[in-house]
Structures are given as C-alpha cells and as structure tokens.
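Q: what sequence does this backbone want?
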C-alpha cells in the first residue's frame, strides 16, 4: 500500500488539535483521582453491518464496556455512558456495587446513561450522529470545569466525526492510521518489527487475486494442505475462510468456491466475494503442529508515546478449526508469556513511529518444535479494545494490581498474585429462563459472587443478552490458575443445575416461536 501526502482538511486539522490536548490530560488529569474529568464511553462496534449482523446479540456487546464504570472509584470523575438501547438500572447497579472504596450512592450521583432507543443493525455511533438533539444532550452533561475525552471500542471516521461535534479528544488510534490494524497492514508491521509471520500475501483486492496467491503459496510449499483467506476487517474470526488444497489442488477464480469453508456458519460465497472486493484481504498458510496454542499480548501506547505491555492471555478458540474467539485465560503460559510480551513491546515501539496511540492487541499462533521450544507466528493486530480488554480491566479495578510481563505475573499491592478465566460466550438455551437479578442471586447463594475480602470470585457481563439469547460473559478470578478454573467450572455446573428443569419448556417454546 502506497501513501502520498495530501493537505489535511479543516476537520482533520481540528481533530489533530483535539488529540494534542490528550498529552496535558494524560500528564495532569488521568493520574489524579481528585481531578475534575468526564469520560464519555462509546461502546460502538463500528464494523461492517453485514459482519455485525452475524454476531448473536451484538447490541448487548455494548455492555462490555460497563467495566469502565469502575472509573467512578475516583471521587471527582463523571461518566457519560452511551448505548443503543437503555441499559436496565439493575445491571448498572451490579457494577456500582462492585466499586471498592466508595459508597454506592456516591457512585450513583456521577454516571449519566444516554440511549438512542434504536435497536437497528447499525453502529451505535452512526445512530448518535443521526440525532442532533442527543449530541447536544451529551454536551450539556459534561460538567463545567471538567476536562473530557471519549473512550471507544474502536475508532473510525464515525467516532472522529462525533468527537469533532462534541469538541473532545479520543483516546485511541486516529482513523487515518486504521490500515495498520487490518490483516494486510498487520503483516507489514510484523515484517518491519522482525517478527515471524505465516507465509502469505497481503493487499489482495479480488477473488481473482486470492486464487493467484493460493497458487503461489502452494507452489512455494506443496506440502501445505490448507490456507487461510481473511477479510481485512473481520471480527472474532467471522471474516475468515479456510481453503483446502486437498479438495481443489489447483485454485482458479472459477473453482475457488469449491475449496472454501467459512468460519461463520451463515456466510455465503457470494457475500464473502462481495466483502472481499469492498475491503480486501490476505492469504496465508494454515499453521499446524502437534502442540498448537493461540496466545495474545495486549499493549497500550500513551499520549506521551510510551509503550506499555498491559497483559498476556491464552485465547480459548471454538469451531471446527478453532477460528472463533470465545474466551481467554490470564496470564499466558509462563513458558512463553515473557517472549510474546517482548514482541508486543518491540512492535509497539515501531507503531509509535507511525503516530499510533491507544490500546492494541496482537494475536499469535504458537507451535512447539521438536526441541521443546515455542515458535511464535504473529497473526494480526487489533487497533481497538478486544475480548481480553474488559476482563483485565475488571481485575485491575477490583484488585488495584498490575501485570509485569517480565515475570509473567499479576501482583496486587499486598504482593499476592491473581489469575482468571474469562469468556464472552457462555451460552445455553436453558439460560434464557434467567433474568439478570436471578443470575446475581444464584451467584450469591452459591458463594460465586466476587468477594472483595479475599479478592476472588466471579463477575458477569453481557447480562442484557441472558434472557433473550441465553448468553452471558464471566470473569473468574482466583489466587491460582487452578482456583480460577475451579470458579469457571463451578459456575457452569451451578447454572446448568439451576436451569435444567426449565430446559424442556424452553425447547417447546422455541418450537412454537
């Protein structure tokens, strides 16, 4: 991809000026718990609408950033939380009652929840931009004398437009740099940082170019049995397809559909071809090995251009070919967590040269070689908050600790360590019989609810998706990895036990529906 210099527009210059104000905020207001500040939380999944539609209960993913309500533990901080549909007060209270060090009433005085009352399949930010009065309402709820910034799930031209209308900066990567978070841009940054990556080709713009790339890949290594074909801007694996050379040894544009299998069960060849033409993508070898894992590292580039390694995880992947992200365990395996942490830091330094800022994650495929060592292949960069962001933030807000990637341990101020297992995808049809208050009641009665005294237990998210989709997210925190896993397994066991009697009735109702 080639870049040429063009004169920035007035809007781009205004946005750049706003972004420059973050330096002062970060130095003087972010670290001061008594500073007067307002955080506008924008949990918009600003993704392609047709890709978004394939995520069950996608509107409830806006609840994942409710963990940022924990910022209210700073007694002079206000929060404006935006959503497509109103979030039930009991769900908000659940988070506020987890806050350490302040009373519930003190916390309740400082968040403002603003909803579009719009459940349509559009990004939340687009819904807000279509409502001038709602934008004015957001402005009015920034208290006089407060500095403010916007925190989003991902930052696109939509979020930039909203920031300009609100006249606040965004703590995230500028949309003009979003290419470096695509599958193609990721591969180029990996090479620049000297990281291993799977053999393959990027910046492909048509199915015809995919066929040529697959042919070239197979000619380089005839032993390759499968390859990945990925949209540049897929989400959680749903923009991926697997090509089988066993089914189609000589790929052409005409026979390509015969060798492709899509990760998303409802993805069609025609839709995939359309999306590939719109957003482009890559082809790369499907890596295999006797021991294969999928770790990730999460980093942050501050407004001061500092690179911080925030966390490492071992991802929990589902699906026939393990392409769909469902959860993670923290921290990553001690055998390699330091290695991927160092790679994350190295890549972050390279990214600062391009002006990239905010949170980002790097996904790896790691294979154990015959010598017993791990070989890590960088797969993609996510220039956004991801599925591992909110579990770690919950742990950090609840326990006030910090992760040290060099030791591979998370330590609290008292020196104790903590671990967790987390998922966004705990789902069963029978869970639809539960409401969020039912779930909380069960957690308390079975001694699963997070206990601030011992700083262990379970927290929940995606609560709004429970009754409609039988889906929820959990973060299971323990003093050892085994203890965290026990909390996870016990939670699943208890939920299945408590809802087993209703499963038959729900199945009958589903048939009627």
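A:
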């Amino acid at each position: 991809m080639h870049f040429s210099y063009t004169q920035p527009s007035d809007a781009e210059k205004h946005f750049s000026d706003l972004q420059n104000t973050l330096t002062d905020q970060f130095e003087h207001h972010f670290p001061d718990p008594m500073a007067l500040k307002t955080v506008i939380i924008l949990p918009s999944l600003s993704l392609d609408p047709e890709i978004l539609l394939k995520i069950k209960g996608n509107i409830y993913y806006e609840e994942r950033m409710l963990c940022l309500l924990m910022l209210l533990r700073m007694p002079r901080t206000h929060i404006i939380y935006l959503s497509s549909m109103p979030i039930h007060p009991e769900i908000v209270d659940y988070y506020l009652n987890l806050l350490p060090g302040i009373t519930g009433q003190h916390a309740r005085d400082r968040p403002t929840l603003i909803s579009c009352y719009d459940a349509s399949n559009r990004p939340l930010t687009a819904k807000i931009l279509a409502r001038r009065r709602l934008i004015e309402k957001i402005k009015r709820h920034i208290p006089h004398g407060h500095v403010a910034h916007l925190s989003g799930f991902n930052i696109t031209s939509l979020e930039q437009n909203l920031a300009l209308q609100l006249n606040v900066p965004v703590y995230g990567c500028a949309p003009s740099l979003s290419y470096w978070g695509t599958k193609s841009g990721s591969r180029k940054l990996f090479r620049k940082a000297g990281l291993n990556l799977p053999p393959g080709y990027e910046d492909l713009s048509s199915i015809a170019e995919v066929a040529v790339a697959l042919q070239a890949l197979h000619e380089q290594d005839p032993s390759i049995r499968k390859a990945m074909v990925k949209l540049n801007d897929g989400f959680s694996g749903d923009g991926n397809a697997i090509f089988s050379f066993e089914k189609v040894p000589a790929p052409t544009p005409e026979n390509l559909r015969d060798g492709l299998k899509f990760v998303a069960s409802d993805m069609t060849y025609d839709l995939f071809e359309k999306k590939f033409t719109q957003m482009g993508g890559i082809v790369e070898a499907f890596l295999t090995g006797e021991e294969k894992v999928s770790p990730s590292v999460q980093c942050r580039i501050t407004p001061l251009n500092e690179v911080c390694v925030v966390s490492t995880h071992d991802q929990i992947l589902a699906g026939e070919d393990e392409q769909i992200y469902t959860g993670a365990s923290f921290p990553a395996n001690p055998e390699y967590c330091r290695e991927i942490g160092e790679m994350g830091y190295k890549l972050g330094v390279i990214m600062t040269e391009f002006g990239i800022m905010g949170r980002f994650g790097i996904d790896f495929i790691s294979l154990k070689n015959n010598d017993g060592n791990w070989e890590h292949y960088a797969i993609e960069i996510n220039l956004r908050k991801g599925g591992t962001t909110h579990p770690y933030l919950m742990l950090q807000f609840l326990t006030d600790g910090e992760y040290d990637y060099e030791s591979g341990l998370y330590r609290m101020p008292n020196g104790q360590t903590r671990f967790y297992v987390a998922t966004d995808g705990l789902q069963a049809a029978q869970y639809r019989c539960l409401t969020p208050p039912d779930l909380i009641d069960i957690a308390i009665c079975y001694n699963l609810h997070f206990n601030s005294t011992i700083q262990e237990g379970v927290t929940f998210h995606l609560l709004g998706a429970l009754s409609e989709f039988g889906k929820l997210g959990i973060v299971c925190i323990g003093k050892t990895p085994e203890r965290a896993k026990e909390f996870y397994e016990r939670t699943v066991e208890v939920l299945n036990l408590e809802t087993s009697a209703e499963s038959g009735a729900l199945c009958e109702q589903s048939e009627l529906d």
